[in-house]
Write a structure and sequence with these properties.
This protein is of the alpha+beta class. It has a single domain (37-82, 101-207), classed as 3-Layer(aba) Sandwich (Aminopeptidase), CATH 3.40.630. Helices cover 36% and strands 24% of the residues. It has a seven-stranded mixed β-sheet with strand order 4-5-6-7-8-3-9, with helices on both faces. The protein has a two-stranded antiparallel sheet with strand order 1-2. The protein is globular, with a radius of gyration of 17 Å. The chain starts with 7 loop residues before the first helix and ends in a 7-residue tail after the last helix.
Length: 214
């Protein structure tokens, strides 16, 4: 029996079930499903901003935008020697963006995008897919602004899929599958809206809820 065609609807159902797609490489047309036994999350109320990152955010070196160039953000994430983002995945997430389910938080210097992160939003759950950085600290700034946006617009779960030293330094944690699925089930019922900020985010908005300890 042939496998069902991978559509935006099927992709959303997969996320709501706790799994996500990947490809072996950019040139590999095959897609496989991933269901980790240990899941990375970024607690929205415990995002860690170090003193050095705080200085970067306040310096005005970067400015951030939300959903201003989703396609370029995904291309930036795929622009590396090894990537799981093939053409099928790129087109699917572009369609999810058109349907207001996929979003990007971008970091710019002037007219150049130097970092960003994108993911999928369903209810009060945000599934972070990938991020990139072309300048030091750019991806950290993107995550700081995205976490603040999620916290302020009613989200309770920021799924990072896996945990890395980079994410752990920002407060990322690893939980088991059952704990994750319980949190996911609760988050999916929430009427969160990632686009619902009443005013643009400022540097003070981002750093104020966080405690700097290093």
């Amino acid at each position: 029996m042939d496998e069902p065609e991978l559509t935006p609807e099927l992709l959303l159902q997969a996320y709501a079930s706790g799994i996500f797609p990947m490809a072996e490489s950019q040139d590999d047309p095959e897609i496989f499903w991933v269901d980790p036994s240990r899941r990375g999350i970024l607690p929205l109320d415990r995002f860690h901003i170090s003193r050095s990152l705080r200085r970067v955010i306040l310096s005005g070196r970067f400015h951030t935008r939300f959903d201003s160039d989703f396609a370029a953000t995904v291309r930036g994430c795929a622009d590396r020697d090894e990537t799981w983002i093939n053409d099928t995945i790129f087109e699917l997430y572009l369609e999810l963006h058109r349907r207001d389910h996929a979003h990007s938080q971008e970091v710019w210097i002037g007219d150049e995008m130097v970092g960003g992160v994108y993911g999928v939003a369903i209810g009060g759950a945000f599934f972070g897919e990938s991020m990139f950085s072309r300048r030091s600290d750019a991806s950290k700034v993107a995550l700081a602004y995205l976490t603040d946006r999620l916290r302020r617009t009613g989200f309770t779960l920021f799924d990072t899929q896996f945990i890395t030293p980079h994410l752990r330094s920002l407060g990322g944690q690893e939980i088991d599958r059952q704990d994750y699925l319980c949190r996911l089930e609760e988050a999916l019922l929430l009427p969160a809206d990632i686009t619902a900020l009443s005013a643009p985010q400022s540097a003070q908005d981002v750093i104020q809820p966080n405690t700097q300890t290093s």
